[in-house]
Design goal:
The complex is a heterodimer of chains A (233) and B (334). With 233 residues, chain A is mostly helical. Chain A is built from eleven helices and no strands. In chain B, helix 3 runs antiparallel to helix 4. The radius of gyration of chain B is 22 Å and the shape is globular. Classes of the chains: A mainly alpha (233), B alpha+beta (334).
Chain lengths: 233, 334
């Protein structure tokens, strides 16, 4: 017990000595996670709305792919993006490997199917009366899309929360394409891995507390939005 | 605007098991009511025309009110104005006011009752300037006392455009229809003026669906104490209605509520006795439909035994008697 207690004391000591290193890790974590969530959900929500309503041959194959994507092992996504961005790879010329941009790309790839899948499920579960009324209204396509998103708001926010949750917790893919370079591509999760490997458990737990706090804050905001969506209007 | 809307080859689902290759023509300022039992395909036809199901290619410009009104998140006003452009929002507010929604415009639309939600949907649909209005059971959730007024509003708002309405209520048929189309099993069984179809069903199937009935249109010449005298041309009769002198009303009474006499009946409670000539006798299952020509045809349902006892045949002078209480009148115009 004393050992765990000491780890916790070390963790608070680490946080107390909050320095520019820790700040840059937190900022990069937030930038990469929020950007990837924004991109993944930005494309995933419209695609999910479309997929829930579209009728075409092969729709079930697309749904299947989305479901596979939702459970895609991050290291595979990381490996795939690594190959794309590698010097001799098709996008090697962009020189993006081991940059925050590469991390945002791989995180967006992971966020996208989650946004699609959860959105499609939310839109599919709208009541038949709502679906009929949406189809009956004489609305331009963009208005129609917003009406659907607004109607399925709790589910669509769940899609954003799930995408963010996957991205901020992710370590394998960003490690592969980001490289965990101190001051450049190190984020909270990769920093925790680093500190744990070197048996600096106080620092690792301190970083873990920060990670958990960020997650609690962002999800708190989303839950608040969701609750507003359920109760009123 | 086209002279009429023609829909042909309507089919649903792709195997045609509900609707198979059905055609329907609606004049550009005609009010058509599709009537039939539940599950007969009426709503499916309306949805196909609205384009909310099936292949929506070549979809007509329609304003469609589904049977079950759905209120979206937001206020009543937000819902009322959804999809409306130009002068339509102002018209929607005006119609909502006529429908008694003034006090609810800023309320959460999801707190509205079913009847109120229906009025919001109706105001929105009628405010749209689409040349073809599609209404699914527009009067069903409306309180009985208000139906006549709401029906009149619908008629006013569809004065110069086409209305296609679906219902399983004869009251709605009489209140809204200038043409009645009987639909069952995904097929059109009969198509004609409401009075003709109700008075003279082509087949036993139609007679079973609509019952045999009479619809007579006339003008109120005297009114007071909730009763009115209606002049339909050949004769006058008394009905229960709030209509005022000069109003046009449609009066419906079932053929089974009409009594047939060979002499002028006296001493009974019926207010309306009308003379005519026995024109035709049609078998309706175990009963007989007697058509009496009183200037307008009046259908009377009797048992074969009763007709034998009267000893009346085609060409004979007869009297029919209808109780005022069994006649329902709907005001359809001023």
């Amino acid at each position: 017990m004393e050992y765990l207690w000491n780890v916790l004391l070390d963790a608070f000591a680490y946080l107390r000595d909050f320095g520019p290193d820790l700040r840059s890790i937190i900022v990069l974590t937030l930038v990469v996670s929020l950007a990837a969530t924004f991109i993944g959900a930005g494309f995933g929500i419209p695609f999910g709305v479309w997929l829930a309503r579209a009728k075409f041959r092969g729709r079930s194959v697309v749904m299947w792919s989305v479901n596979v994507g939702m459970g895609l092992p991050p290291v595979l996504a990381g490996l795939f993006v690594l190959l794309l961005l590698w010097g001799e790879g098709p996008l090697g010329g962009l020189d993006l490997l081991f940059t925050p941009t590469a991390m945002i790309i791989v995180q967006s790839v992971l966020a996208f199917p989650i946004a699609v899948g959860v959105t499609a499920a939310a839109v599919s579960s709208l009541s038949p009366a709502a679906v009929e009324q949406i189809a009956a209204l004489r609305l331009p396509n963009l208005r129609r899309f917003w009406l659907i998103v607004s109607e399925a708001r709790p589910g669509v926010i769940a899609a954003v929360a799930a995408a963010f949750g996957r991205v901020i917790a992710e370590v394998g893919a960003v490690l592969i394409v980001g490289g965990n370079i101190a001051g450049e591509t190190r984020v909270l999760t990769t920093a925790i891995v680093q500190e744990s490997r070197q048996a600096r458990f106080g620092a690792a737990v301190g970083l873990g507390i920060v990670l958990l706090t960020l997650s609690i804050l962002v999800n708190g905001l989303l839950t608040w939005l969701q609750a507003r969506g359920t109760q009123n209007a | 605007m086209p002279d009429s809307f023609t829909f042909s080859g309507l089919r649903f689902p792709s195997d045609g098991s509900v609707i198979n290759d059905l055609s329907l023509n609606v004049g550009s300022s005609e009010r058509v009511v599709l009537y039939g039992p539940n599950g007969g395909g009426k709503t499916t036809i309306l949805r196909l025309i609205a384009g909310t199901i099936g292949n929506a290619e070549g979809r007509a410009d329609t304003a469609y009110m589904p049977q079950k009104p759905h209120m979206f998140r937001g206020t009543t006003r937000t819902n009322l104005l959804l999809g409306l452009v130009g002068d339509e929002p102002a018209e929607a507010i005006r119609l909502a006011s006529l429908l008694g929604l003034d006090d609810f415009l800023d309320a959460d639309a999801r707190s509205l009752s079913g009847g109120q939600a229906q009025r919001v949907a109706l105001a929105r649909t009628l405010a749209s300037q689409a040349p073809l209005v599609l209404l699914d059971e527009p009067l069903a959730p409306i309180t009985a006392a208000d139906r006549s007024d709401v029906a009149r509003l619908i008629r006013e708002q569809t004065e110069h455009r086409a209305l296609l309405c679906v219902t399983h209520s004869i009251e709605t048929v009489v209140a809204l229809g200038d043409r009645l189309v009987i639909v069952d099993g995904g097929l059109i069984l009969q198509d004609g003026a409401p009075g003709d179809v109700l008075n003279n069903p082509d087949t036993d199937a139609v007679a079973t669906i609509v019952g045999v009935g009479n619809v007579i249109e006339g003008t109120v010449t005297h009114a007071g104490d909730g009763l009115a005298t209606v002049d339909c041309g050949p004769f006058k009769f008394t009905v229960v209605t709030d209509a005022a002198v000069g109003d046009t009303v449609r009066v419906r009474f079932g053929a089974e509520t009409v009594a047939l006499h060979v002499e002028r009946p006296t001493g009974g409670s019926q207010r309306n006795t009308i003379s005519g000539t026995l024109r035709e006798v049609i078998e309706r299952g175990r009963l007989l439909e007697v058509v009496v020509d009183a200037g307008v045809p009046i259908a009377v349902l009797v048992t074969p035994g009763a007709l034998d006892a009267l000893d009346a045949g085609v060409g004979d002078a007869v009297w029919v008697a209808v109780k005022t209480a069994s006649m329902s009148a709907i005001r359809i115009g001023p």
